[in-house]
């Protein structure tokens, strides 16, 4: 069966069909697929002495990443197009009926009617590139921040890429392949796969722990069905935390939060673990779950849930769970550097707030339009949340709980990460010409 190309793609079909794409040696690629595809020369090296810290903001529906000052005013510095190969990717998708079906499925479900072009991102240690997971293109790419061109591309197994995590030394990046229940771990410089491991259904959040010796992955199960009533919870799939050795990628421990939640007396809560935040000493894990306006505290050594925080509901928020984005009521949590404050993005309740970790008392509810993620500013003084509903990024002071800055960014900002670029960087050369 042949799939007709949209008119916009037909004009580039001939040129792309003859474009040569260099790949890694066959002996280095996994047997199941080509990996670490190189599309340009390796990223231009940047001396470590000439680096500056910045804040990367992934604009998922735009396919861009805004680069901001990491603290204070969050002033804009530059913008990167993370889908410079869009025409080529779209041609491949439209020539493959299965890929096209998944592409359109992502658009109409998790994408809320939009394509998902940037889910997560991290910069390389030398500040020369930003590595991005692109859900709708089912891949991870490295974008040269000086030229805006691709250094390498890694197609994940299955049909969608998701959350990532970078190792403490910045040399490896772990990415969830959500439709194949797999996490790939890549060399951040070359895009070559160093290993992979199996997870529960729909792997989501990844975190390196224990000095980089362990990787924690949370599988959230099916979040795009309308079977959101608690009665149908059993249809959501195998949801669990998988902890693996970061060198051998062998499973060290599997944590079934269903058992821990039941023992804690919260049989009513979902066991789909969403964003998480460790204390600085990693003795406690704070995590959000599907449908819940709040978070829970998990004692790592004791292997049990010890406390739960329920945050206020917004009266304007519908109680119809099927209207909540991907089963999330609250999605986004971060910890202050001192470990004394927790910042929460109340996604469907349209606010963000800072919670005192000792007392679990929340501060002011800061109005925010569909806040989707929470991280820490470069100076450690503020929580930074992405407001995907208003296309802005907002900083909230950890000490006072008050808003201190807000700046506009691209369409539907989601992940926000600290990273590095060259000290004199103001954007890719292609964007400046």
Low-confidence stretches: 1-35, 37-48
Q: What is the gyration radius calculated from CA atoms?
A: 21 Å
Helix content: 10-25%
What proportion strand? 35-45%
How does this model look, in words?
With 433 residues, the chain is mainly beta. It is 10% helix and 38% strand. Strand 20 (333-335) and strand 21 form a beta hairpin. The longest helix has 12 residues, at 97-108. It is globular. It starts with 6 loop residues before the first helix and ends with a helix.
List the SSEs and their pairings:
Blueprint (H helix, E strand, L loop, with lengths): L6 H11 L33 E9 L4 E5 L7 E6 L4 H9 L2 H12 L11 E4 L5 E6 L4 E6 L5 E6 L5 E6 L5 E6 L4 E6 L5 E6 L4 E7 L4 E6 L21 E5 L5 E5 L1 H8 L8 E6 L5 E6 L4 E6 L4 E7 L22 E3 L5 E6 L4 E6 L9 E2 L3 E6 L5 E6 L4 E6 L5 E6 L4 E10 L6 H4 L1
Antiparallel strand pairs: 1-2, 1-28, 2-3, 4-5, 5-6, 6-7, 8-9, 9-10, 10-11, 12-13, 13-14, 14-15, 16-17, 17-18, 18-19, 20-21, 21-22, 22-23, 24-25, 25-26, 26-27
Q: What brief labels describe this structure?
A:
433 residues, mainly beta, 4-stranded antiparallel β-sheet, 28 strands, 10% helix, 38% strand, globular, disordered N terminus
Summarize the structure.
The protein has helices spanning 7-17, 86-94, 97-108, 257-264, 429-432; strands at residues 51-59, 64-68, 76-81, 120-123, 129-134, 139-144, 150-155, 161-166, 172-177, 182-187, 193-198, 203-209, 214-219, 241-245, 251-255, 273-278, 284-289, 294-299, 304-310, 333-335, 341-346, 351-356, 366-367, 371-376, 382-387, 392-397, 403-408, 413-422.
